[in-house]
Amino acid sequence: MTVTEQTQTQLVPDEIARQIVLPEGHSDHEKLFAAYKWLRENLPVGKAVVEGFDDIWLVTKHSDIMEVERNFDVFTAGGHDDKGSHNPILSNQAGDAFTKSLTGGSLRIMDALPYLDPPEHSAVKDIAGGWFRPANLKQWEDQIRTLAKESIDQYLKPGINEIDFIEDFALYFPLRVIMSLFGVPEEDEPRMMKLTQEFFGVADPDLQREDVQAQTPEAMAQQFAASFQDFCGYFEGLVQDRRANPREDLSSLIANAKTEDGEFYPNSFAYGWFMAISTAGHDTTSATITGAIEALAQNPEEYAKVKADLSLIPDLVNESLRWASPVKHFMRRALVDTTLGGVEIKAGDRVMPLYQSGNRDTDIFEAPDTFRVERKPNKHMAFGYGPHMCIGQHLAKQELRIMFEELLPRLGTIELKEGRKVTQTNFVGGIKHLPVKIELLK
Question: pLDDT digit string (tens) for 342-358?
Answer without folding.
Answer: 999 999 999 999 999 99
